[in-house]
Structures are given as structure tokens and as C-alpha cells.
Amino acid sequence: MSLADAAWLKGIYEKIYRILSLENRLPPPDAIHLLERVDVEGVHERVLGFAIREKNCIYFRDIPPDPITFAHELIHLCTKSSDTDEEVYAYNLAQL
Q1: Most-buried pick from 24, 30, 45, 60 (CB within 10 A)?
Q2: Is the backbone peptide bond immediately before 29 cis, with ω within 30 degrees of 0?
Q3: What pTM value is reported for the model?
Q4: If you ran DSSP here, which 8-state letter would residue 65 be given?
Q5: Which residues 6+ apart lie within 8 Å of 29 measured at CB?
Q6: Which of 63, 66, 70, 74 is nearest to 22 (CA)?
Q7: Pairwise CA distance, residues 91 & 85, whole Å
Q8: What DSSP state is assigned to residue 32?
Q9: CA contacts within 13 A on the Cβ side of 44
Q10: How many Cβ atoms sit within 10 Å of the Cβ of residue 11?
Q11: Residue 74's closest CA among 44, 40, 29, 30?
Q12: Residue 88, CB half-sphere, CA atoms under 13 Å: how many?
């Protein structure tokens, strides 16, 4: 399923997506694939979400995810000038 197909992608989630996609830094919602629990193996129960940038995939333990978790994982999918501090960016900017 794509992010565009997610019934919960409205309100705050849509706003978060629009902010992070400025300057075309994110793929369109129909190009972002949502992984389901059955699609992933060995994910620890404490993992709230993760992103696979090379495949434009994101996984969330809870649906809908917490808005901060949603922003954090989308930041991982954003195009950046370098990968040096990706986790620092994702952790700090998700709060905004």
C-alpha cells in the first residue's frame, strides 16, 4: 500500500508531509510504500518505525503513527545534501 492510500493521511499528517516535501525533497505519496508487520521480520517490538530510503519504504508499528514518529521517518526519506548527520536531523527536526 502507498502512503497516498492511507486513510489516516489527512489533517496533521498531511501538513507534516507538505512541510517536509518543500523543494521536492520527498517522493510523492503514491511513491512511498507503507510496509506492514507481515512485510518485516525480526523487528523488535519497541521499534516505532523505520525507513528504507533506497526503496522509498516506511514502516510504523502503530497505525496511525504518532505525528513525531511520522515526521522522523519521512525525514529519513528526504533528499539531503549529505548523509553525515541523518539521524541527528531526523531526531531534532521531527519535533518541529
Answers
A1: 60
A2: no
A3: 0.83
A4: P
A5: 2, 3, 4, 9, 17
A6: 74
A7: 10
A8: S
A9: 3
A10: 10
A11: 29
A12: 4
For residue 36, what are the CA distances in angstroms to 3, 18, 39, 61, 92?
12, 23, 5, 8, 26
Identify the residue with better confidence: 89 or 5.
5
| Residue 82 confidence (pLDDT) above 70 | no
Between the CA atoms of 2, 36, 63 and 34, what dihedral angle is there, to the nearest 10 degrees?
-20
The Cα–Cα gap between 59 and 79 comes to 18
Q: What is the pLDDT of residues 1-17, one digit of tens each?
A: 999 999 999 999 999 99
Report the SS3 class of residue 49. Answer: strand
Cross-strand bridge partners of residue 34: 58
Q: Cell match 523487528: residue?
A: 43
**Strands, sheet with 33-35, edge to edge from the N-terminal-most edge strand:** 33-35, 57-60, 49-52
